[in-house]
Structure to design on (232 residues):
């Protein structure tokens, strides 16, 4: 069985701390200590989150022993977006229906307004 | 704490069977039996997946006791896409870099070609 890349990506994104880490890395590379600062969690807990992100290919880590900065890797995010794009017509359709409904309400309002 | 909608959405999408169920529902509403047909898994297993999808707001189920068709609900997919869109510049940047690199290779190839 081929590794299911999309499942790893979505599973990695299903956590607010991991999403916050990615948001931080979108501003530039950072060390584990820097990444841990804004969170009320231990360094080992942050390391665990980083392992999940690294396993999903969402971050890459430097190889220097002392300074191993983390960097964002956006490839899997593109694949996730490509998958979601197939459903765009569904949410756009719901908004179209809402627009139509609001337009009908507005027309009705104007018509009722003229009656009085 | 407010329920973390994005985490529920991504967790629900982190499974190939659940993504296949959503793909099937994108072709129209279907009963649990119809949804189970293509999969080598039991009805209770399918029901479990449907509960996860329903909890994440990704499907809606009819209320009739005998015929409870499932329907796709695209709202949470839009929210997930909106979140991912913030990272678009990163994957587009990588592709731009790749394009530049390929253009450089091509130019170099032409220049080397003229030399011979």
């Amino acid at each position: 069985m081929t590794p299911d890349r999309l499942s790893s990506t979505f599973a990695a994104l299903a956590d607010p701390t991991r999403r916050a880490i990615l948001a931080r890395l979108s501003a530039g590379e950072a060390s584990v200590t820097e990444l841990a600062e804004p969170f009320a969690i231990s360094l080992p807990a942050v390391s665990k989150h980083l392992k999940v992100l690294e396993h999903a290919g969402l971050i890459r880590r430097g190889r220097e022993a002392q300074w191993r900065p983390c960097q964002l890797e956006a490839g899997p995010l593109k694949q996730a977006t490509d998958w979601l794009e197939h459903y765009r017509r569904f949410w756009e359709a719901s908004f179209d229906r809402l627009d139509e409904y609001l337009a009908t309400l507005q027309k009705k309002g104007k018509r009722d307004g003229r009656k009085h």
In short: The longest helix of chain B spans residues 88-115. The CA atoms of residues 62 and 68 of chain B lie 4 Å apart.
